[in-house]
Amino acid sequence: MQACGGGYSPETRRKYYISGPQWAAAYQGQALFHAPTRAPIGFEDVIREFAKIGIGYWTTHDTDVIPTEALGKEEQANIVGRIRQALESNGVECSMVTTETFFHAVWAASPAAEAPEVRQYAAWRLANTVKIGHELGAKFAVYWPGSLGYYTQGAIEETQTLRWYADGLNAACEADIELAAKYKRPTLRHCLEAKPFEPQAEILLPTSDAMLAFIASGLLKHPEMVGLNPEYLHELMWGGAPRAALARALLAGKLFHFDINDGYRLKHDVDIGIGLVNPLDWLNVLVLLRSHNYTGPFNLDYKPPRTTSNYGVFAVSFPTAVDRFITLWEMAGDVIADPVIHEATEALKAGGGPADPLDVEAVTAANRELLTLHELIAHRMVQILLGPHRGRVYPVMPA
Ligand code: XLS
Ligand code: MG
Ligand code: MG
């Protein structure tokens, strides 16, 4: 880390709305074909380490911190009390809570299963998470319906399952309205998170766009309370352009929260740290968000690789992820202010000159040279990304 140089100070890092998930820091490296490589770690250590790094916000699933069987019991209240204490003494805030509706065996047929008792339990779990959110001071609740789908076709009826899923969200929003009044707080912002595959074979709401359609379907009682938590990699996984997916969410006024990470197209959810795979695409994403004044959280929903040690999670993995984000965010500011890109963009918008708009050949000819600027803009962005030779000329061979 010393050899790499140039890390930001914890004070600087805290100026950004960056949140660290409990589950990311506590991820032990396990997967279907992988045994864990790291020892378990609890929320007290995670919150303390986040604070030291300068990650000012913390996010959690209910069962990341409370055992399933203790939910709703006295033990829950004790744990929530301990979390509040850990947050307070480290100057960290809880920004988001989310319900685990994918891991426990009760969700084998999803939280919108046929059996009414499963759905009643799901509605209770969502409401209980909203309550925990209010108790911890959170502003957002996230829903990743990863188990909403199937392995074998025909057993579930999709329209019915989606109606049942909407019932769960409706229960969460209604509980929120009551709890917010009780705690004298604003209601939470409820954010749907899509992923195109995993853990079901087929997913009923696989993309952010599918979720926008679901929010507008008429099934939700409070569609104004519900928006999106897109995850960068989840849009890339299906082959989409994350920046375009974010643009559609912005146009719909539904970009509430954003999970940041990196990875590859058409692969499983590898959850690599931001900017390690697609830094140029990330720069572009942040240019879009900066130019539209996105003010929501950037949630570090990645997984430190299983080759990283417990020590390395906090000494290398988290600080470097935060620092790459900050650098890319500041570079996005450079792109927006760049005179070359500005001039090129304005020239493109002005068009190629006086031409009869109904004369197709004249319109084409008038823009022929101008459109070369598309490639120039891309070149300029790479110059800004790579930095050192921006606008400068180096002798390639010593004179
Ligand atoms: C899983 C999701 C998950 C959500 C919260 O792929 O990214 O981590 O962000 O349940
Ligand atoms: Mg996520
Ligand atoms: Mg992911």
**DSSP helix count?**
15
What's the total number of strands? 10
Q: What fraction of the residues are assigned to beta strands by DSSP? A: 5-15%
Written as H for each helix and E for each strand, in order along the chain, the element string is HEHHEHHEHEEHEEHEHHEHEHHHH
Identify the bound ligands.
D-xylose, magnesium ion
Shape: globular
What's the alpha carbon Rg, rounded to whole Å? 23 Å
N→C terminal distance: 36 Å
Q: Structural class of the secondary elements?
A: alpha/beta
Strand order of the largest sheet: 8-6-4-3-2-1-10-9
Q: Name the poorly predicted regions.
A: none
Q: Compute the average pLDDT.
A: 96
Sheet with the most strands, sense and barrel status: 8 strands, parallel
Roughly what percent helix?
40-55%
Keyphrases for this structure?
single chain, 399 residues, alpha/beta, 15 helices, 47% helix, binds D-xylose, binds magnesium ion
Describe, in plain words, how this protein is organized in 3D.
This protein is of the alpha/beta class and 399 residues long. The chain has 15 helices and 10 strands. It has helices at 10-14, 22-25, 43-53, 62-65, 74-90, 116-136, 158-183, 208-215, 232-237, 242-251, 279-291, 310-337, 339-350, 360-368, 373-386; strands at 18-21, 57-61, 93-98, 140-143, 149-150, 189-192, 202-203, 226-228, 258-259, 298-299. The strands form 2 sheets. It has an 8-stranded parallel beta sheet. Helix 6 runs parallel beside helix 7 (158-183) and helix 13 runs antiparallel to helix 15. The protein binds D-xylose (XLS) and magnesium ion (2 copies).
